[in-house]
Structures are given as C-alpha cells and as structure tokens.
UniProtKB/TrEMBL annotation:
The keyword Transport applies. GO terms for molecular function: ATP binding; ATP hydrolysis activity; transmembrane transporter activity. Residues 3-222 form the ABC transporter domain. This is ABC transporter ATP-binding protein. Pfam families: ABC_tran. Belongs to the ABC transporter superfamily. Macrolide exporter (TC 3.A.1.122) family. The lineage of its organism: Bacteria, Pseudomonadati, Bacteroidota, Flavobacteriia, Flavobacteriales. CDD domains: ABC_MJ0796_LolCDE_FtsE.
Length: 222
C-alpha cells in the first residue's frame, strides 16, 4: 500500500463555527494506480491533494505513507519524505520566474544532495524527453502556457517520485495541449508512477483507472 487516509477531518474556524474542508475521509491508494478526484469547486479536491502531499495538516484522523505515520512525524522528517517521494504539478505552473527552464527543473535535485554530474544527466534526460532542449536557457515568461506546464511536469518528475499529485494540470491549456499532458501522465503511469489528479474535466478523469467523487469534503458514493 502506498498510502492510506483514515477518518480524516480538517476544518477552519469561522465566526465561532467549524467549517469542514474534509469530513471523515477515507482513501487507500496502491502503488501504480491512476486516480482522478472530481467534484465541484469547494468540494475539497485541492485540500485533499495538499494533505496527501504533506503541504497541509489536518485535525483528526491518521495518514500513513509507505507504512509510516505521517501525522505523528516531526515537520523535518515529513518534509524529507515528500521531497523524496512526491512530485507536484499545479494548474498555475508555479515555476520560479527568475530561474531558467534548466534551473527550474534542477531545483528538486538540489534538495537531495545529488552530485553535479548526476544532476546534469537527470535534467538533460528531462529536457530530452519533453523536447525542450532548445528552451533550456529561457525564462518562464518567454514560454507558452503549454511549455510552462511541460517544464512543471519535468520538474515534478526529475527526482523520480513514486507519486505525482496534479491539481487541474490542464486547467490553463487549450484542448490539444491538455490532451498531450494527459497522454504523458498515462505513459508515466504505465511506467509505474502513481498519479492522483484533481480535475473538473470528465475527459481528463477518464484517463484514470478509478474516479473518486467529493462533495463538501466527503466521499460522494454515487
């Protein structure tokens, strides 16, 4: 089992009331799955991805990742775990404006104490795989949306994560670019990478091997 969420509750306090973002949520994910999370805006999709990606905590419940209790860990160990195993792809690309394409892709490797020669090789692989060798010295502002998203995915993949979390990965792209990105996820999944994507799109969701519906922070068992 790659990860397991048991009875997760997450809330914020607004004017003395608890507003639930996730409510008694349970989820088991096996290695190699491709899961789509669907639901209207505000249903908790991004919150769930952030909890799985260890960017967000929660108030009640337990979270196990590779049999380790994430909720009981010190922040330092948690951060080490997600840098080691998890890659994020966001709708808004989140590239670092003042770094070149090459440097953006290299960023995750700097956290992992990988020697310079190996870093070069890994980044070169990614540039090659995504056909962006010619763009390596450009800055994000010089790229189209589709190219920025490719760089975002290359960056998420360069450290060879076990799990890719994608939040509306094609949200800002035209349909051809979107389809290209989804095909790419499908290939990665066939190579053994586990993928969890949040999406509004039925078309994108269909690439997954199963779909999870959320409504008001809980599983909607349609």
């Amino acid at each position: 089992m790659l990860l397991e969420l048991n009875n997760i509750f997450k809330w914020v306090n607004q004017g003395g009331n608890r507003v639930f973002l996730l409510k008694d949520l349970n989820l088991e994910v096996e290695e190699g799955e491709f899961i789509s999370i669907m639901g209207p805006s505000g249903s908790g999709k991004s919150t769930l991805l952030n909890v799985i990606g260890m960017l967000d905590g929660f108030q009640e419940g337990e979270y196990k990742f590779l049999d380790e209790s994430v909720h009981a860990m010190k922040e330092k160990n948690r951060s080490k775990l997600y840098k080691e195993y998890i890659g994020f792809v966001f709708q808004a690309y989140h590239l670092i404006d003042e770094l070149t394409v090459y440097e953006n892709i290299e960023t995750p490797l700097l956290y992992k104490n990988i020697k310079s020669a190996e870093r070069k090789a890994l980044v070169a692989d990614m540039l090659d795989r995504f056909n962006i060798v010619g763009k390596k010295d450009l800055f994000p502002a010089q790229l189209s949306g589709g190219q920025q998203q490719l760089v975002g995915i290359a960056r998420a993949l360069v450290a060879k994560p076990k799990l890719i979390l994608a939040d509306e990965p094609t949200g800002n792209l035209n349909s051809n670019q979107g389809e290209e990105i989804m095909q790419l996820f499908k290939e990665l999944n066939q190579e053994g990478v586990t993928i969890i994507q949040a999406t509004h799109s039925e078309t994108n969701a269909a690439y997954g091997s199963r779909t999870l519906h959320l409504l008001d922070g809980r599983r909607d068992h349609k």
